[in-house]
Design goal:
It is globular, with a radius of gyration of 19 Å. About 35% of the residues lie in helices and about 15% in strands. The protein has one domain. It contains 9 helices and 9 strands. The two termini are about 25 Å apart.
């Protein structure tokens, strides 16, 4: 879920209050809010648990436990990466907080290091709520808030999605190129912004879907909500379900254009961040963060 530019200052103030209050009372975090919902919308495909397993001493893998017995291993090209994974990456400063568990610090650091730098470099405030979250995730220009009660794989997927909001919020373009008509609150997006090129594939400058847009043109049902969720869900599909994105792109020109945009503008550190189980059958899921996958670490 996105927070617009106007809300970012409020979130930053809230985080400051939380940080100060936590120093005085660890129980303050528990009073902020309650279990979140998948981007505000429940889904029948939600997985209830995930386990952390190790295939080698240096390769940690997150697997949705409800699917372990029936998952089909994807092609070797997806499972093999050209760049060695770091054995023990340094925890990023924004993540290294006493209120965040070591497990979530490691997951968040790996995901942020693997994603394009647009999220990592702009993330100043990172908060994990272990009790009281009303949403599974919120993201803005410099802030991400996640529900820490979800399974590990889902936590990682939510972070990828919310990073989509951080990335898009920091790509307004330059004023000399002219007003594109797109807005995020009071923030103007200019014609030379690469985000404008992405949004033009499915949206008009008024924020309305283009005439003739189909469900299959979007990464997920939730991605149809608005242009911001369109981008965040497509990013999650791109890095967590690469085979599914490629398969859908072969059958749909809009998805092919979105995949080409991702490859040109947001190359990831690794060949693939996730080994997704979605075979790209053509069915459009409601929420990409609910699809089973393994993080290739």
């Amino acid at each position: 879920m996105r927070r617009n530019a106007t809300s970012t200052g409020v979130i930053s103030l809230l985080l400051g209050i939380v940080a100060v209050s936590l120093a005085a009372s660890p129980s303050f975090l528990n009073a902020v809010t309650g279990p979140s919902v998948a981007n505000g919308v429940p889904t029948a495909t939600a997985h209830t648990a995930a386990t952390l397993v190790s295939t080698t001493p240096k390769r940690a893998v997150f697997v949705s436990s409800s699917l372990k017995k029936r998952r089909v291993r994807l092609a070797a090209s997806v499972l093999t990466t050209s760049v060695p994974r770091p054995v023990a990456p340094t925890i990023l400063p924004a993540i290294d907080q006493p209120t965040i568990t070591d497990n979530h610090k490691k997951i968040a650091t790996f995901v942020l290091n693997a994603l394009p730098s647009g999220c990592r470099d702009n993330l100043n405030n990172f908060l994990v709520l272990y009790k009281g979250a009303t949403r599974r995730g919120l993201g803005g220009k410099t802030t991400i808030i996640l529900d820490g009660s979800v399974p590990d794989a889902e936590f990682a997927a939510l972070l990828v999605h919310e990073c989509g909001h951080v990335i898009s919020a920091n790509m307004p373009g330059t004023s000399t190129s002219g007003d594109s008509g797109y807005r995020d609150g009071n923030v103007v997006y200019y014609k030379d912004s690469t985000m404008v090129a992405y949004w033009n594939l499915s949206w008009t400058a008024t924020g309305a879907k283009k005439q003739g847009a189909k469900d299959a043109d979007f990464a997920s049902g939730y991605g149809k909500s608005d242009m911001y969720e369109d981008f965040a869900e497509a990013l999650a599909l791109y890095v967590l379900q690469p085979d599914a994105f490629a398969a859908r792109a072969e059958k749909n020109a809009v998805m092919a254009a979105k995949l080409a945009w991702m490859q040109a503008n947001l190359p990831t550190k690794y060949e693939s961040l996730g080994d997704g189980s979605d075979a790209g059958t053509g069915t459009v899921p409601w929420d990409v963060t609910k699809l089973a996958f393994r993080i290739l670490e």
